[in-house]
């Protein structure tokens, strides 16, 4: 990170962009609080969580389903990275918007 501070800047820029798109286009999804570049959104039950995971994988997006007993509530975990481009973030939001 010290040798490439632009990576850290890009990571947090991507984080802010995804958070903005969630608020604008996916407000129906319950985004769980995070100060890290890991986004989790909560779903009603483990079955829905697995269905969303499979649909995201079919679209070429890795976002694992995390279910009880590992966590208290079912959720999908999205990790944003510095090497993601806006088109990747927008694709994720579009796929989630069409579920």
From TrEMBL:
Highest taxon in the source lineage: Bacteria
Class in the EC hierarchy, top level: transferase
Gene3D superfamilies from the UniProt entry: Aspartate Aminotransferase, domain 1 (3.90.1150.10)
InterPro entries: PyrdxlP-dep_Trfase, PyrdxlP-dep_Trfase_small
Molecular function as annotated in GO: 8-amino-7-oxononanoate synthase activity
Keywords tagged on the record: Acyltransferase, Transferase
EC number of the protein: 2.3.1.47
Keyword Acyltransferase on entry: yes
Name under which the protein is recorded: 8-amino-7-oxononanoate synthase
């Amino acid at each position: 990170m010290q040798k490439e501070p632009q990576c850290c800047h890009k990571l947090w820029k991507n984080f802010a962009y995804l958070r903005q798109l969630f608020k604008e286009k996916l407000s129906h999804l319950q985004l769980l609080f995070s100060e890290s570049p890991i986004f989790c959104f909560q779903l009603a039950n483990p079955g829905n969580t697995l269905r969303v995971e499979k649909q995201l994988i079919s679209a070429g997006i890795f976002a694992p389903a995390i279910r009880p007993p590992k966590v208290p509530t079912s959720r999908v975990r999205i990790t944003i990275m510095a090497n993601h481009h806006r088109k990747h973030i927008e694709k994720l939001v579009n796929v989630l918007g069409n579920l």
